[in-house]
């Protein structure tokens, strides 16, 4: 489990395709502290460390992950938001993030807001999935590329988030622009509530 509070950015140093999977080798500020089998969030995707170098580590993304996320678009030298799993005695500064990306969204708007920046994202509208909690609500939580954010101005298929300068400078929001593809994970609590509501109404 993660909190959506990004620890830093990792840099992709190598990409290797193995059958339907892709191995990503990356460097990051805490690479030397990692252990094999440890879970790390990469742009919001939970991946397992499978090998280590002196200052680097490697993770494997399977085809299902590549289909649901933007990891398949990564290139060498790209920056990835990373977060280690939350310690059981840690503070939940963001919100509960599973590291199970639901789908991708496209950035369709970037607007200055007196020092901060508003980013608007659009994702495919699926009414059946929305009934199961795959949607955003005003002042609710959403995870974008692994970053825990608060939703504003949601519509059926879009939402906006406000990014403060610190978050902009310390995550890959610094490289984001109109047309960028991001990973999104909808709030797990909303999914459970929606499922329970429909389960009770189906009886």
UniProtKB/TrEMBL annotation:
<dbReference type="GO" id="GO:0004746">
    <property type="term" value="F:riboflavin synthase activity"/>
</dbReference>
<keyword id="KW-0677">Repeat</keyword>
<dbReference type="InterPro" id="IPR023366">
    <property type="entry name" value="ATP_synth_asu-like_sf"/>
</dbReference>
<keyword id="KW-0808">Transferase</keyword>
<dbReference type="InterPro" id="IPR026017">
    <property type="entry name" value="Lumazine-bd_dom"/>
</dbReference>
<feature type="repeat" description="Lumazine-binding">
    <location>
        <begin position="1"/>
        <end position="95"/>
    </location>
</feature>
<feature type="domain" description="Lumazine-binding">
    <location>
        <begin position="96"/>
        <end position="197"/>
    </location>
</feature>
<comment type="function">
    <text>Catalyzes the dismutation of two molecules of 6,7-dimethyl-8-ribityllumazine, resulting in the formation of riboflavin and 5-amino-6-(D-ribitylamino)uracil.</text>
</comment>
<feature type="domain" description="Lumazine-binding">
    <location>
        <begin position="1"/>
        <end position="95"/>
    </location>
</feature>
<protein>
    <recommendedName>
        <fullName>Riboflavin synthase</fullName>
        <ecNumber>2.5.1.9</ecNumber>
    </recommendedName>
</protein>
<dbReference type="Pfam" id="PF00677">
    <property type="entry name" value="Lum_binding"/>
</dbReference>
<keyword id="KW-0686">Riboflavin biosynthesis</keyword>
<dbReference type="InterPro" id="IPR001783">
    <property type="entry name" value="Lumazine-bd"/>
</dbReference>
<comment type="pathway">
    <text>Cofactor biosynthesis; riboflavin biosynthesis; riboflavin from 2-hydroxy-3-oxobutyl phosphate and 5-amino-6-(D-ribitylamino)uracil: step 2/2.</text>
</comment>
<dbReference type="InterPro" id="IPR017938">
    <property type="entry name" value="Riboflavin_synthase-like_b-brl"/>
</dbReference>
<feature type="repeat" description="Lumazine-binding">
    <location>
        <begin position="96"/>
        <end position="197"/>
    </location>
</feature>
């Amino acid at each position: 489990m993660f909190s959506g509070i990004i620890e830093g950015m990792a840099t992709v140093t190598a990409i290797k395709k193995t059958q339907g999977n892709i191995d990503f080798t990356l460097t990051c500020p805490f690479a030397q502290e990692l252990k094999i089998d440890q879970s790390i969030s990469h742009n919001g995707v939970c991946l397992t460390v499978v090998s280590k170098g002196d200052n680097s580590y490697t993770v494997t993304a399977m085809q299902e992950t590549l289909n649901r996320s933007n990891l398949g678009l990564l290139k060498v030298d790209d920056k990835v938001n990373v977060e280690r799993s939350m310690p059981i005695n840690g503070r939940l500064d963001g919100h509960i993030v599973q590291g199970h990306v639901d789908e991708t969204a496209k950035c369709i708007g970037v607007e200055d807001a007196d020092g901060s920046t508003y980013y608007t994202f659009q994702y495919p509208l699926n009414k059946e999935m929305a009934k199961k909690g795959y949607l955003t609500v005003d002042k609710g939580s959403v995870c974008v590329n692994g970053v825990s954010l608060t939703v504003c101005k949601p519509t059926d298929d879009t939402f906006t988030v406000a990014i403060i300068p610190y978050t902009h400078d310390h995550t890959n929001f610094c490289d984001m622009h109109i047309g960028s593809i991001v990973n999104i994970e909808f709030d797990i609590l909303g999914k459970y509530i929606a499922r329970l509501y429909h389960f009770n109404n189906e009886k």
